[in-house]
Amino acid sequence: MVVTTGPQVDPEVLRTAPNHEVHRFVPHEQLLPGVSLVVGHGGHGTTMKALAHDLPLVLLPLHPLVDQPMVAASVQRAGAGRVVSPRTGTEQLGTVIVELLADGPHRRSAARLGAAIRTMPGAVNGADVIETLLAGGRWPATARTGAATRR
User: Fold this and answer.
1) How far apart are CA 54 and CA 149, in angstroms?
2) Which of 49, 66, 131, 136 is at 20 to 30 A from 86, Cα to Cα?
3) At a CB cut-off of 8 Å and minimum separation 6, what does 57 contact?
4) Could you read off the pLDDT of 17-39 as tens digits, one per residue?
């Protein structure tokens, strides 16, 4: 198991099992190809990266006033993960993790979403926006809709 703490928690203060690695930060690209499940708070970045790697998620939204609850609920509605309260006990959380580590429809849903994410024209749209803004233009309407305009 690999745990990343982010900038707020010093990894050295956590007591963990011998088979756990605790880091302040590890790039997602280094971790996600080798994992089977992501447990997170429902932030957009980690959630999208996990889904792009066809990984189901267990999500514990921590902040009710940002995107975490909405992102987590969307993942659960799509069948690619489960939302649990941050107050969930370790036994119940363990049960959810074991369920999502197993094969099942949540894996197929995560793979379906991953395939869709990997075909999105994000880089093309981003390049279009940068080119437009550098040319002194306005934010293109296609950047808001997700339509590709690259020639």
Assistant:
1) 27
2) 49
3) 37, 38, 39, 40, 47, 50, 51, 75, 80, 81, 82, 100, 110
4) 899 899 999 888 899 999 999 99
| End-to-end C-alpha distance for the chain, whole angstroms | 44
What pLDDT was estimated at residue 64? Answer: 81
Q: Please, which residues have CB within 8 angstroms of residue 44's CB and are 6 or more apart in sequence?
A: 67, 71
* 65: its two tokens: 């006033």
Q: Which residue has the tokens 């880089």?
A: 123
**Amino acid at position 14, single letter:** L
Give the chain's domains with CATH numbers.
35-120 (3.40.50.2000), 121-151 (no CATH)
**Which residue numbers in the chain have pLDDT < 70?**
139-151
Extract the tokens encoding 79. Answer: 């069948």
Whether the pTM exceeds 0.85: the reply is no
Token pair in block for residue 111: 């793979």
Quote the tokens at residue 40. 């997170």
